[in-house]
Amino acid sequence: MAIELACTCGQKLRVEEARAGERVKCPRCQALVVVAGREAFAAAAEADNAKTCPDCGKRLPTDAVVCVNCGLDLQTGRRLKTTIKKSAKKKDHAGKLSRVRLGLAFHYARLIIFLASPVVLLLAIAVGGIAGAGGRTMGLAGGALAFIVAILVVAALLSAPVLGMVGSILCVWVPSKSARSTIMVSMALDMASFGLGMVALLLTVVGVLSDAPALALVFRFVQFGLTVAAWVLFMIFLRRLALSFEEWGYADEAGSIILFGTLLVLVPPLVVVGLTVLIAGLAVGGGGLAVARTLAIVILVLVVVYLVFLIKFGFRQLELISDLRRVITRRLAEG
Fold this sequence. Notes:
The structure is a single chain. The chain is mainly alpha-helical. Helix content is 71%, strand content 6%. It has seven helices and six strands; from the N terminus they run ββββαββαααααα. The strands form three sheets. It has a two-stranded antiparallel ribbon with strand order 1-2. α2 packs antiparallel against α3 (136-171) and α3 (136-171) packs antiparallel against α4 (177-206).
């Protein structure tokens, strides 16, 4: 049986099948052409007899039952469905992100309580004052209402740190190691601040801090410092969480909130303290009573402006936490 070959110069050759594997010389260009072996011809013959998938056009072996390219069953004409099972590692990663998302929800609730409690307390005081001006009976009712609301506000303020600590515990499952270490330190500072506050409350009830105002001031100052440090670390955690998701905009927003929050904590109180000292000096001197009243009005205006900025600042944090929860939800949906 003759084998047909083609040289690189275009010359066609015919050789005997027995010479398979040998090299023959092209009569035109004198180049050596290798005669393919029987295996190659067998493969070529099998390829000629191969069937083609009617759906995707892929060439398949003659005995193929299912197209490996598109999953078409060549006998029934139906496409097979493939279910990809998630690995245990992916399931564990998804579980961790779900816990972090829940932890951020706890921090969101904590911040809502902090923002709402002062407003509710002011409303309670206003209701009590209005009721008090309306007569004895109405005054008693208004005072009772104001007392109940105040108790609820205090209970909410006590529960807010607990919500934050529970949220931080859930956030410890964050996959990012740098974010995990940050939230752990923030949680420890939150716990220390809460514990110190409970000790101060107990000492106040038994009368120890009532007789030692300087010690009470030290307690409050240390507790405030721990709270601020825990908040800064929590915002750093949010920034690192955003960076782990490659959400650069949210990471920048977290950094901006840290800077603005630091200024909001340090600068306004110093201004108010300075103006208060100035008013006290003028009042003692007796010659600047009008100036002292003017400065008192300025301090009142500054306090109102400070509260407005504080509320807007709180809503920025709420928006950031909500955005990061949406990012986590999207990542979980993507698998």
